[in-house]
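COMPLEX REQUEST
Ligand: pyridoxal-5'-phosphate
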Amino acid sequence: MKPIYFNKPHLTGKEVSYMEKAVMTGKISGDGVFTHKCQAFLEARYGFGKALLTNSCTDALEMAAMLCNVKEGDEVIAPSYTFVSSVNPFVIRGAKIVFVDSAADNPNMDVTQIEKLVTNKTKVIVVVHYAGIACDMDTIMDIAKRYNLLVVEDAAQCIDSFYNKKALGGIGHLGTFSFHESKNIITGEGGMLTINDKAFTERSEIIWEKGTNRRAFFKGKAAKYEWVDVGSSYLPSEITAAFLMAQLEDMDNIQHKRIRLWKNYQKHLHKLAAARNIQLPHIPGFATNNAHMYYMVCRSGDERAELIKYLHDNGIQGVFHYQSLHKSPFYKNQYHGAELPNSDRYSDCLLRLPLYYDLKQREVDYICEKVIEFYKD
Ligand SMILES: *Cc1c(COP(=O)(O)O)cnc(C)c1O
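STATUS: Structure written out below.
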């Protein structure tokens, strides 16, 4: 049997022809026809106040940090079990990160731990919906409202996923998405900022266009094209947007297939999990599952290492995920908060299994068979 890789980027078939079309129009820089089409599609489908394509989710998070006016000395509350880009853009602007532990039954931040971390310096809560499964947003938005904080949803993994019928990335003041090749919908490198609070709309376009009023000028709303604020080069070229359009048009098909594969994992593994005290993804009643990821949480780091080796010996690539950021080489000396045992446990014990469009159901059957075999007495 051929090795089963952890991920394989999926092409719908239309990417190259759309990219060729973008090239042939003669306008290949950003903010053109394909960009507008993608943004309109995503705004209409998910009810985002406004969507701006970016070159990555990291870019979108940098834009969010600028829009929130994060300054030296401000505090930002964020989970420790996440990717560096959830917090790096705020660190660049001088913020101190106050890390929250994950919940016991899933890697999302434990919302019952947030409020006690709020101080008079707190400005932003960064919410990360791990594996595309929603955090309890009512609780988070309520805290934000009571303490006058801004909420940025790092929805990198969350395309087509919902919290109580509201699209993820559309609930916080700002949201950020990734179209990196490891996500459900891809452009190689790519991302999007969503602006759900109108107060940020005008400035988001300026920051997107290097701190100029270029957009307003071309819409005839400004007399001159000038430097008006901070900003950077965040917009992708039309070639990237053309690639994205092909992916977006195939969204329902991609999601349908991924969800079927995910359910097959759950069907095969839930009995083993219950018998052996292994944690599988938990979908709360308020959340949907966009099948971004299938994972299991082993009982120890050693067990995970042995399982990774066992799968590898059987031609299957299983991979671990984040290492707690509060213990990272970069941040550990600056971190003075409490121990975060759940975050550390997911760092040590969480294992991700292959999940991508072109994976076959029989390959999922085989992977599960090997996992079950590993746990046989
Ligand atoms: C993938 C990911 C990112 C980074 O996305 P890029 O588009 O590569 O910048 C940020 N946060 C989370 C939670 C992610 O999963």
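REMARKS: The CA atoms of residues 1 and 146 lie 57 Å apart. The first helix runs from residue 15 to 24.
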